[in-house]
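[Meeting: bench + compute handoff]

Bench side (C.D.) handed over the final construct sequence. Compute side (W.E.) agreed to return the predicted structure before the next meeting so the bench team could plan truncations. Sequence as handed over:
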Amino acid sequence: MDSPTPAPIVVIGASTNNLRDVSLDVPKKVLTVFTGVSGSGKSSLVLDTIAAESQRLVNDSYSTFVRARLPQLPAPDVQTMDGLTFTLLIDQRRFTGNARSTVATATDIAPLLRLVFSRIGMPSAGYSPAYSFNDPSGMCPTCEGLGTVHDIDVDVDELIDPEKSIDEGPVRFSMFRPGVYRWKRFAYSGLFDRSKLLKDYSPAEMELFLHADRLALDHPDPRFPQSARLDGVITRMRDVYLRQGSAK
């Protein structure tokens, strides 16, 4: 037995923006397309009238605390509407997307889902930003909320020549060649013996050379770059080529 046809969305006297007392019925459970020349009122009817009123009614059903954190839509200029249901509103901007774009973010349903999880999720983080991959309180610190990790995965000897000292340019990458400012960070930091071969470094010295992370220096050589902070070779390459995608 076929299910009964649901009552349509009824719009009476819509006058939002350039509409002039427009009335119509919009059927449900079918694909309905609004067409017309530019400026004919398609967006005013679909987005600024039907969708806006549906979203406003849904928002009004939440508590004051929740409503304050939802998108605020003005009441449309219409005499009456009936048969409205929950609506996902997608604006007319070109959807370019990026690594953080999902169906939930594109349809603006992500904030609502986070609110649901913050209320009924077990175990609960207690507040909605903790469920967002775009918020520092919720994103994975390793992948930064992207779900994948791009990192340097090579044998250390492929990156450096242990038979060379800092003065000889031990890093097998031109951005660290002798004389450039990244090389100067190691040469003038005061933390390394510039004539010592890397193969003779202690484990602590090699860890510092490869993985120092914005290490503050008290009194480096005046020729040290002005930042007065030291990044290891792998740390610097990761930040420049993997996280930012362009050289600093």
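W.E. noted at the follow-up: The longest helix spans residues 42-60. C.D. will use this when planning the next construct.
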